[in-house]
Records
---
Amino acid sequence: MRAGRLFGMFLLVNLQAFAAGTDEQLPPLHHPVEVEIPDGMEIPDTFPLSADGRLDCKTCHGIEGIGELPFDELDREAPDFHRGGPYRRLTDFCYRCHDRREYSRSNIHKLLDERGEYDEEACRQCHLEVPDPGEENIVRSELKFRLPPQRLCYGCHLRAPHLNALDHQVKPDEEMRERIGRAERGLGVILPLDGDGKIMCATCHTAHQRGLIDPQWPAGRQVADTDLDEGVTYREHVWNRVFQADKRERLEVLAGEEGAAPVLSYRRIEKEVLIRLPAKDGTLCLVCHEFER
Ligand code: HEC
Ligand code: HEC
Ligand code: HEC
Ligand code: HEC
Ligand code: HEC
Ligand code: HEC
């Protein structure tokens, strides 16, 4: 398979997979199960296969009897939900089996080629109808997506990709909504909420490479002080060593097996990308929060 298509396919293929032993249907974008392991793919020894050597629920999930449990009772935050976890990036989990080199270049957010042009196929990974980035007055509620926009990111990113991401999936109160409205007008940016008025990934982040949407329009306003190959980088905070020493015991437990990154560290953002306003100087946070200075 051509390198780079793996993620797109994961999103496009609507797998009507059923969990063995229950009537519960797997989520529509779930990974294929009961498939054979192709030659050349190395599955870690700690990932048990089914008796006939295929992918089983237990290969990927450390939750005992996941196929028999009602899905809404599952603890998705359990470290072993993805076997060998917790992982900092969901892609780190994928790379336990798939070849990192083969699709590390596949980044759905890289939408523009060298000439600054795009292929609508790439847009259709998220959009059902591709909006024209050259059009000025787009009514956001009329955009049609393959999934509700608040769920678009989950096939590839964890629900809690970083500290606080989960705490933020709530509905801001009226006072905060007014602050958001004022900031949108004042700073010339969009901070869209989902259909229920809740904060979603795309409230803070944009999914588009800079330049796809004209940067003079609110939806095109974004921070990119690095490119998408390098991605977001962090600098260790001077306190980090103290913080780490303090938490060493917990970190060691969390770090788990090889491949799993420690999730707790005290970091400062160094370079940002795919974010609507800078967070490293607090601008983004101050849209909604009034912190003591
Ligand atoms: C190749 C690895 C793999 C196999 C095999 C696998 N899963 Fe998953 N499963 C995943 C990944 C990856 C996710 C989460 C993606 C995400 O975070 O959005 C997931 C998510 C889930 C979820 C949570 C869905 C949600 O949206 O909350 C359930 C339930 C689940 N799997 C059940 C199963 C069952 C039952 C089986 C066996 C029939 C199975 N899985 C086999 C990789 C796998
Ligand atoms: C336990 C090993 C394992 C893990 C972990 C795993 N996969 Fe897979 N994956 C497989 C196997 C085995 C197949 C089926 C053989 C193949 O098509 O390469 C497969 C197939 C796929 C396919 C379909 C390819 C096709 O040709 O139809 C996609 C897309 C995919 N994986 C993406 C992912 C993503 C994204 C993740 C992480 C969220 C992931 N995989 C995690 C083992 C794994
Ligand atoms: C990873 C998912 C994803 C991909 C891929 C994607 N988009 Fe989007 N797009 C979104 C989301 C989410 C929104 C709604 C929030 C926003 O405006 O950023 C959106 C909104 C838009 C908007 C409306 C902006 C506004 O004025 O509010 C345009 C125009 C757009 N996309 C064009 C494109 C084009 C053209 C492509 C392909 C080159 C593309 N998108 C690819 C997720 C995606
Ligand atoms: C089809 C898979 C896919 C989907 C869907 C997706 N992403 Fe990504 N995203 C990636 C990959 C691959 C990267 C590169 C880094 C990596 O490997 O994790 C990335 C990187 C990022 C980054 C950080 C840049 C970096 O590399 O450090 C942000 C922020 C991000 N995505 C936000 C989103 C948001 C918000 C959505 C939903 C609107 C979304 N993504 C949907 C695959 C995806
Ligand atoms: C309240 C704002 C906010 C929300 C909501 C949010 N993020 Fe972030 N995210 C940030 C900030 C701030 C960073 C740090 C990097 C930066 O400033 O660009 C970041 C970094 C990231 C990164 C890249 C860095 C890394 O550590 O891997 C990814 C990927 C990412 N977010 C995905 C998501 C996804 C997926 C969601 C939804 C589940 C989400 N974010 C929700 C603010 C947010
Ligand atoms: C779009 C609005 C919005 C933005 C932007 C935003 N927040 Fe929040 N934040 C909220 C809401 C809503 C809550 C939950 C209610 C509350 O605690 O006020 C919250 C909660 C929090 C909490 C408390 C979580 C807990 O455990 O109780 C922290 C800490 C936080 N935000 C930090 C930040 C930081 C740091 C940034 C910038 C990177 C940021 N927020 C950006 C709206 C926002």
---
Amino acid sequence: MRRAMADAEVGDDVFGDDPTVNRLQDYAAELCGLETALWFPTGTQSNLAALMSHCGRGDEYLVGQEAHTYRFEAGGAAVLGSIQPQPLTNRADGTLDLAEVEAAIKPDDPHFARTRLFALENTISGRVLPPDYVTAALDLARRRALATHLDGARLFNAAAHLKAPVETLCRGFDSVSICLSKGLGAPAGTLLLGPREFIAEARRHRKILGGGLRQAGIFAAAGLYALEHHVARLVEDHANAERLAAGLAAAGFEISSAQTNMVFVRAPRGLAEHLAKNQIKILPGERLRLVTHLDVAADDIGRVLDVARTFLN
Ligand SMILES: Cc1ncc(COP(=O)(O)O)c(C=O)c1O
């Protein structure tokens, strides 16, 4: 990947003439079955540009309480987009009750914000949205004239779990955001995909948000490398997560089971310190999120399990 980055042919992406960025965008659009794509430095910026392209000032979007755009992006939609979020409770599997979603759509009345958009996330905290649920959610949005956005930061993990082409998971959405960092291993980069006119609007918002980079081809080369070399191996991360979850559960830890690359563990007091003493660094907290990725080898899982077992003993 570093070699591909060093060798990348570059231009000025602010003018849309960086050949490597253009190649990545075209490749991703084809792969995902959407008309066109736009590279962003981060997923947060891609999501926010998408929300701002779908919604204007005083509009509203429907979203899960646990969704990244609502909970973990510092309220950007409200702060920078003047967009009102309408958060709804996620069920244990990450889905929303679609009757609740429909009931939350505001009538056309000057008392209310205008409900414009329904945003989903797949995977959501490592859980894959059931395809039937996604179909029903898209049907609801269409019937009620709402636009749809998919935060697919880890959509390739969902596709790997379902053994389905990623294109089928994008189908029917007006816009999709997919991260090239995280499990795919690029140092930066997210693609926002959608129709040409929508992406032209998103390009304006990317500029407003300070995301117009010049020789972005250096990053795009990493993104291309990630798509070409790091997608097929995601199943290894899933197998590692499954082994980690099974090993921790067998040792007596309370875990929520891994569908893709995440394991959540209720952490007894002192676990983080015990792991740290054994050169395993984690973000401390009551509920630990353990994520497998291309820099975590199968041997590492064995080591984490050994150290975690000694903690309980
Ligand atoms: C589901 C989801 N969406 C979006 C983002 C934002 O990505 P970034 O960290 O590149 O801004 C993340 C980051 O972890 C995420 O988990």
